[in-house]
Write a structure and sequence with these properties.
Blueprint lengths: L12 H17 L3 H7 L4 E10 L5 E10 L7 E8 L4 H17 L5 E8 L7 H14 L9 E5 L5 H15 L23 H16 L8 E5 L5 H10 L3 E7 L2 E4 L6 H11 L9 E3 L1 H5 L5 E4 L18 E3 L8 H9 L3 E3 L1 H4 L2 H15 L5 H26 L3 H20 L4
Parallel strand pairs: 3-4, 3-5, 6-7, 6-10, 10-11, 11-12
Antiparallel strand pairs: 1-2, 2-4, 7-8, 8-9
The structure holds nicotinamide-adenine-dinucleotide.
Nicotinamide-adenine-dinucleotide binds next to strand 7.
C-alpha cells in the first residue's frame, strides 16, 4: 500500500514508521479495509502562521500545527511540541500514536498532537509567551475541554500550559481548567502530573524486568534525554537502587561506570541547564551513550535514535521507550532477533496521558485528589495495560510493540463499527 501522497506527509520518517506499523497490525488483526483507509489519515489538520514580535523588535513568523487523528472514542488529547524539526508529517504521526496510546490505556480520547517549528532554547521567556499566546489564538477553534485537550511535550512545560489556559480563558470570559493538562498545581494542575510519565515508565519496567529475571536493584541504566521524562525516570530508577551509568541531553552526554548521583545531577542541571560538566563524570557523545554496556536503556529525547545503523551494537537487555518513536521498524526487527526486550512508547510512556486524564476529570469537577491516590490509580491502569499486552504477545507469539498496537488499533476499530458510518 502506498503512503497517502495526496497529503504530502511522506517526507516525515516518523509518519512512514507510523503507517508501516498500522499496515502490519491491520493485516494481523484482519482490519476492515475501509476502517484502515480512514485510520491512515487524520480527521482534521490545521496549519497556522504564528507571527511573533521578538525582543529586538523584528517580527518572525513561525509555523504551527494541530492535528486530530480521530474522535471515535471521545475528544482528542495530545501534546504540543516546540522543536526546530516539527512538521505536519511528524505531528500527524504523533497524533496517530496518541490514538493507539489512549485506546490501549482505556481512556475516553482520540489522538491529537500539535507543535510549532521553533528553537525554544534560543528564545526568551517573553518571546515564548508571545508565540504561545498567538499560537493558542490561531488554534482556538480546534481546542476546548470537550473537543481537544493539549498537554506538554518536547520543548513545552507547565508554564506553556498556563499561558495557553489563560489565553483561552480570556476569550471565554471565565477560567476553563479542562482546556489543557500539565498545568502548574496552583492553577488547576494535578498532583503527580509532573512525574507521571517517568513514574509510569518505572512501573512498567519493574514488571518487565521481573519477568526477565532481572532485579531493578543494581541494574545498570542509561537514559538519553534529561527533561520532563528522562530526568524523572533516572531519578526514580536511581531511588529503586539502579546504577545510572550514563545520561545525556541535547548538549551531550556524561558517563560514570560506578554510577552517577542523580539527585546531585538534578541540582547541577537546575543551575547550569545541562548534564554536561557534572563533576565525577566523563563526557560521551549521544551516539556512544546509546551503545554503552548496560541492562536498561531509556531513550527519552527525540524520535529515530535506534536505527539500522546502531541496533546491532545496543548492549541493553531491555529498552524502555520514554520518547515517542525512538526505534525505527528496521531497528525493532534487529533488536527482536537479538532478544532485546523493547517496551514500546505507547505503553512505556503512557503514564503522562493517564495522569493528564485524571487532571482533566479533576478540572471538570473542581475536586482534586491526593497524590498517593493518583499514583496508585496510575499504577493500576498501567499495570493492567502491561498485563494485557504481555498476555496477547504470548498468545500471538509477537513482540510487545505489535501486541500493544493490536490492542490499541482494535479498540478504535471497534468504536468505528459501533458508531457506524456518517452520513
Ligand atoms: P523535554 O523538552 O522536557 O526534554 C527533552 C530532553 O531531551 C532535554 O534534556 C533535551 O536537552 C534532550 N534532547 C533534545 N534533543 C536531543 C538529542 N538530539 N539527543 C539527546 N538529547 C536530546 O521533553 P520531554 O517532555 O521530556 O519529552 C521527551 C520525549 O518524551 C519526547 O519524545 C516526547 O514526545 C515524549 N513524551 C513526553 C511526555 C511528557 O509527559 N512530557 C509524555 C509521553 C512522551
Amino acid at each position: 500500500m502506498s503512503l497517502p501522497s495526496k497529503l504530502q506527509f511522506e517526507s516525515s520518517e516518523l509518519f512512514r514508521m507510523a503507517v508501516e506499523q498500522l499496515n502490519a497490525v491491520a493485516k494481523r488483526i484482519g482490519l476492515d479495509a475501509g476502517i484502515l483507509e480512514r485510520l491512515r489519515y487524520p480527521r482534521r489538520a490545521l496549519v497556522v502562521s504564528v507571527p511573533t514580535v521578538m525582543d529586538d523588535g523584528r517580527t518572525e513568523v513561525f509555523i504551527g500545527y494541530r492535528v486530530h487523528h480521530n474522535t471515535v472514542l471521545g475528544p482528542t488529547k495530545g501534546g504540543i511540541r516546540y522543536h526546530p524539526e516539527v512538521s505536519l508529517g511528524e505531528v500527524t504521526a504523533l497524533a496517530m500514536l496518541m490514538s493507539w496510546k489512549c485506546s490501549l490505556m482505556g481512556l475516553p480520547y482520540g489522538g491529537a498532537k500539535g507543535g510549532v517549528a521553533c528553537d525554544p532554547g534560543s528564545m526568551s521567556q517573553r518571546e515564548l509567551e508571545r508565540m504561545t499566546r498567538r499560537y493558542t489564538a490561531e488554534v482556538m477553534l480546534f481546542i476546548g475541554p470537550d473537543l481537544d485537550i493539549p498537554a506538554p511535550d518536547l520543548g513545552t512545560n507547565e508554564q506553556t500550559m498556563a499561558w495557553i489556559m489563560d489565553t483561552y480563558a480570556m476569550t471565554q470570559g471565565r477560567t476553563v481548567p479542562g482546556v489543557v493538562t500539565g498545568k502548574p498545581l496552583l492553577v488547576g494542575g494535578s498532583a503527580g502530573r509532573r512525574d507521571a510519565t517517568g513514574r509510569g515508565l518505572v512501573f512498567v519496567l519493574s514488571q518487565a524486568s521481573r519477568q526477565r529475571g532481572l532485579a531493578l536493584k543494581g541494574a545498570r541504566v542509561v537514559v538519553q534525554g534529561f527533561g520532563s521524562v528522562g530526568s524523572v525516570a533516572a531519578r526514580l530508577l536511581w531511588r529503586e537502587g539502579c546504577t545510572v551509568v550514563g545520561v545525556s541531553d541535547a548538549r551531550g552526554g556524561i558517563v560514570n561506570d560506578r554510577g552517577l548521583d542523580v539527585r546531585e545531577l538534578v541540582t547541577h542541571v537546575k543551575e547550569g541547564g545541562s548534564v554536561v560538566g557534572f563533576p565525577e563524570s566523563e563526557p560521551v557523545s549521544n551516539a556512544e551513550l546509546l551503545e554503552l554496556a548496560c541492562d536498561i536503556l531509556v531513550p527519552a529525547a527525540v524520535g529515530g535514535q535506534l536505527t539500522v545503523h546502531n541496533a546491532d551494537r545496543i548492549k541493553a537487555k531491555i529498552v524502555a521507550e520514554g520518547a515517542n518513536g525512538p526505534t525505527t521498524p528496521e531497528a525493532d526487527e534487529i533488536l527482536d532477533d537479538r532478544g532485546v526486550l523493547v517496551i514500546p512508547d505507547i505503553l512505556a510512556n503512557a503514564g503522562g496521558v493517564v495522569v493528564s486524564y485524571f487532571e482533566w476529570v479533576q478540572g471538570l469537577q473542581y475536586y482534586f485528589w491526593r497524590e498517593s491516590e493518583i499514583n496508585s490509580r496510575l499504577e493500576e491502569l498501567i499495570i493492567r495495560a502491561f498485563n494485557q499486552v504481555t498476555a496477547l504477545a504470548k498468545r500471538e507469539r509477537v513482540n510487545l510493540r505489535t501486541a500493544a498496537l493490536m490492542l490499541g488499533v482494535q479498540r478504535v476499530a471497534q468504536g468505528f463499527q459501533l458508531r457506524g458510518f456518517y452520513p
